[in-house]
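Hi Y.,

Following your request, here is the sequence exactly as I used it, all 96 residues.
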Amino acid sequence: IDRFSTRSFAAILLDLHLPDVDGFTVAKQMRAREDATHSQATPIIAVTAEAGPEQALRSLDAGIDCVLAKPINLQGLQETLHLWIPECHAAGAIGA
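Below is the corresponding structure, written out as tokens. Let me know if you'd prefer a different format.
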């Protein structure tokens, strides 16, 4: 969270099950900081082993843009990053 406040990121890849705090809380804190500073929203891409309707609703409520189910394959991750970070696709930066 501290780095998110002081740096700019093209996207955030966030595990929903962190050791000390859940990813939903982290995402809400990120969105609150963006709102407080009137910053442009950074795409938040979450990863979880528990993908389902409840996770999807909680993710939307937390401000998460996309949820990927584990295990994640490289092609799926590349496609998701290209969708949320168009400049990576244009530059061919992912998977080059």
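The longest strand covers residues 44-48.

Thanks again,
Q.
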